[in-house]
Specification:
By secondary structure, this protein is of the alpha/beta class. The chain has one domain: TIM Barrel, CATH 3.20.20. The protein is built from twelve helices and 14 strands. The strands form four sheets. Strands 3-4-5-8-9-10-11-14 form an eight-stranded parallel barrel, surrounded by four helices. Helix 9 packs antiparallel against helix 12. The radius of gyration is 19 Å and the shape is globular. The two termini are 34 Å apart.
């Protein structure tokens, strides 16, 4: 078993390992995963030292929660792990519900017979939380995240949903945390701006931010991560590989960037990073993961995996030895900013 370091989420008593398991692939994102494979992957993650597991009603339209909760009970792991799920969506019967049109369209493989509807009101948050408890089969949930609130997901409708959250959704979150039903609350989004905005309006403990701080994306270094550090809001970093290009690189199968074709400019940047990886005998995924975890605002990396082999690869990557000279060369090449914290601790 790996000895993965722990960091707290904000000022709470919830501690998460450096690596967490995300359940998007296991719920049927571009893969048909059986329950048996799901359970085996969860056990492999636990055996590898991972103690944080993330899911959401959206993932497989309830499948991720059903499968994860059952696996934790069957394997008797619940009391030893941290579980997060999300609110902001309420699942309804697929036969009576119109599919949502979203920026990030996902065709789940063999989902449960439900579809998601948005609801960030008090009643919507409470219903989503209680429904998740039932699907997970858990009497408490450690971390509760508001899913996909903000412009990146809702576009022109974002203000409508912001107003729902402000008018009564915050009240529901506060009640759940104050009552001890959850231990930490935050957001689960694809942008940093909404996290900073909410942190200024309401006390959150953490936020899962996908794809915004990576070896390729550094915008949060301008001010957002400093603001979150000041407010003691921990970042749960997702989308470390920008949906694939930082995992496969440019030499393997057709790479993707944020679930689409890789822009030529991004491809050139990846090739320059790959050249330095080759020079210092560093695996690109290891560099991508360790770069993000080096930032003090980041508490954990939540990494999706669809089988035990991918869990093993991620665990190996987060622990790989990378020479400090590699990070220095990466900075000197201009691939990462001067103010980016580095794993070797020699960031300025």
């Amino acid at each position: 078993m790996a000895n993965l370091p722990l960091r707290p989420l904000g000022q709470t008593e919830v501690n998460v390992t450096s690596l967490g398991l995300g359940t998007v692939p296991l719920a049927g994102f571009n893969a048909d995963v059986s329950y048996e494979e799901f359970e085996k992957t969860v056990q492999t993650a636990f055996d590898a030292g991972i103690r944080y597991f993330d899911c959401a009603p959206m993932y497989g339209f309830g499948k991720a929660e059903h499968f994860l909760g059952h696996a934790l009970r069957v394997r008797k792991l619940r009391e030893q792990v941290v579980v997060s799920t999300k609110v902001g969506r309420v699942l309804k019967p697929a036969s009576k519900t119109k599919p949502l049109e979203t920026v990030y369209g996902i065709d789940w493989v063999d989902p449960l017979p439900f579809l998601d509807t948005y609801d960030y009101t008090y009643d919507g948050v409470m219903r989503a939380f209680e429904d998740s408890q039932q699907r997970l089969g858990l009497d408490y949930i450690d971390v509760l995240l508001v899913h996909d609130v903000g412009t990146a997901w809702h576009g022109d409708q974002s203000e409508f949903y912001w107003n729902q959250l402000r008018a009564s959704g915050y009240k529901a979150l506060d009640e759940l945390r104050s009552s001890g039903s959850v231990s930490a609350i935050g957001l689960g989004v694809n942008e940093t701006a909404s996290v900073v905005q909410v942190a200024k309006e309401f006390q959150i403990d953490c936020s899962l931010i996908a794809g915004r701080y990576t070896l390729l994306n550094h915008a949060p270094l301008q001010s957002d991560f400093d603001e979150l550090l000041k407010r003691k809001v921990s970042v749960i970093a997702g989308g470390i590989f920008n949906s694939g290009v930082l995992a496969s690189g440019t030499k393997g199968t057709t790479p993707t960037y944020d679930y689409g074709k890789v822009p030529a400019e991004v491809l050139d940047r990846v090739k320059r990073i790959e050249a330095l990886c080759d020079q210092f005998t560093v695996d690109l995924p290891a560099a991508a993961m360790q770069f993000v975890y080096a930032h003090p605002a980041v508490a954990t990396l939540v990494m999706g995996a669809k089988n035990p082999q991918e869990v093993a690869a991620n665990t190996k990557a987060i622990q790989a030895k990378i020479p400090s000279e590699f990070w220095t060369a990466l900075r000197e090449s201009g691939a990462i900013p001067e103010n980016a914290p580095l794993p070797s601790g020699d960031a300025k």
